Amino acid sequence: MTASMLVGLLSAAAPTVRNSILPLRVPMPTRGPRFTASDTWKILSHDGWRAAFLLEARGQLLADSHDVHLCRETVAWCDERPSVASRDEGPHRELRTHLYSTMQAAERRHSGPPSASAARRVGALPWRRARGTARGRRREEVIMSMAPPEEVECDVAIVGGGPAGLTCALYTSRANLKTVVLDKNPATGALAITSHIANYPGVDKTMAGDELLEKMREQAIDYGTDYRRAQVFLVEADGERKSVYTPDLTVHARVLVLATGAMGRPPTYKGEGELLGKGVSYCATCDGAFYQDSEVAVVGTNQEAIEEAMFLTKFASTVHWITSTDPSPTDGHASDLIGQPNVKHWSKTRLECIDGAASGVTGVQLRPRAADAETLTLPVEGVFIYVAGSKPITDFLDGQPVEMLEDGGVRVDDEMATNVPGVYAIGDIRNTPYKQVVVAAADGCIAAMSCERYLKGRKSVRVDWVHK
To answer: I need a labelling partner for 327 at 20 to 30 A (CA). Which of 113, 160, 321, 450 fits?
Structure first.
């Protein structure tokens, strides 16, 4: 669970509370941002961490005394339903812990100490031990200072800014559909890291991949695309209105296009999966502020790792940059990072494992590549990993009804439509064996025409050229 989820889920809002499975017995005021009980149920039913952070964000950000009652109701609701998760271990215990922390924060701001009944419901609370620490206080201060994210309404939301997503944006923008592209990092996709593109029609063989990508991006923007750099951590794909959540922005769209590519990877380092959300992160922009005056490690040699490590220098006391090779001497960004006074570079070194306890990450073990080198231990509190793989990036689809293939790709038909009406998938996220730029661009064109037909209720696609 990341801070991005904490902030972004504030946008799962609606003006009133509807009747739903969640038994809220407290009248809710109509002023200010509001989420529905059914929204809470949908989140809680598949991910207790997200529900906990949703309520924690509300309790500490919105300064609403009714949040205290809402937290109490949810703690009781969880305890009465062991089917949500195990009562005594795993996510359920963490959920109850975070909910209790929320009640404390909200009650301190409104009515004094937390209720004894709520404390009895929650039971043993390991998170309480950390709240008196400097890190716990910093965490509260960071949460308190956060503002609700911007909300944008559009016709088409495209997650991913590679050749598939940008081609789709070009066509939808030309069709006068308000289009928003959300791109995690323009420097880290498969095309962006390709040194030369010699097999894309009409392109000089000396052109680099990032240069072609920049031209595609500029062309889409020239036709009206709203391009945003943002990491998407959650989408709501069902229903007529789709929602996409990022740390600073929530996009609501009539159509959702998935174009995140296939450079993902499963957790491979020892301790990575177990400590994900408890000190292990893939987004410094989301979580960096939680590590004020703490030591952190950044693993990776790509441009994203360098940018994220530089961002962390604003917060961490020491940033340990761990690379398996030496960065290129001509890479000015890498040189700038190494030159920072609070950066320690561990070159030709591999991450062996990530150590941790119930409270989160406690350190990492490194092994230099030298034959006689011994394992080193660094006492870090956060580990940020930026290592590319070849797996379709679909983690933000957890809990959504989008049908997947056995190989991890998203299943689509000939029009790039998924099994969910109004949701399309293009490019390498489909895990097609034909991973070529021209194929990704073709996917984007097909999806755009399908989107336009879907939104306009046409029986056939409308071509994007004029015969003279």
So the answer is: 160
